[in-house]
Structures are given as structure tokens and as C-alpha cells.
Amino acid sequence: VQLVESGGGLVQAGGSLRLSCAASGSTFSVIGMGWYRQAPGKQRELVATITLSGGSTNYADSVKGRFTITGDNALDTCHLQMTSLKPEDTAVYYCNAEGYIGLTTYVSRWGQGTQVTVST
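^ that's the sequence the OP posted. Answer follows.
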């Protein structure tokens, strides 16, 4: 099971970025995906999650109204559209995917992380 992330970079405050994540693995049935972030000296925190089949979403209060997570159940992908970015959004963003291998083996996997830097 692998996760491949893309889309990080440097942007000015008020700008936008779009992160993408693709899960692969022939026997991995993805249930949900999400984005987490970790700033220097801080713990990793939830940004947004989505259940791929039903489309239910959950957001951190700090990003509500600015970030939008979407997912594709057929492709096992998710995207995070980030708008009105602030310097405090600067962090390494990690994709997470949860699901099952076979019928009963629960799996949670992390991507390698992608840097998002918002300048003033």
C-alpha cells in the first residue's frame, strides 16, 4: 500500500494551493482519507478527512470555510483545496488513508509529506 502526494509549495498569504493524494495497492480497500499537518515544534494535527463512499467530511476549526476536501471512491484519491492561506498554515502536510486488506485486516497508511509554506 502506497500513498503518493503532490501539490505543495510556496505561496503568498491569501493565495491558494491544491494538494492531491493517491492510494495504491491492489488489495487495499480504502474507506477514508484525510490530511494532517505538522508545523515545526508542534504535534501533528488533523486538517480534514473524508469518507470515500459517503462523502462525509470533517474539518479542523482553523480551516473551516477556507479548505475543501474532496475524494474519488473509484480512484482512491483525495484532494485538499486550500484558499485564503495564512502564514500559520505553514507546515508539512501528510496524507492518510484508512481501510482494509482482505476482509478483516485494518490498515492505516501515511504519505511522505509535502511542504506548504505561506509567506507574509
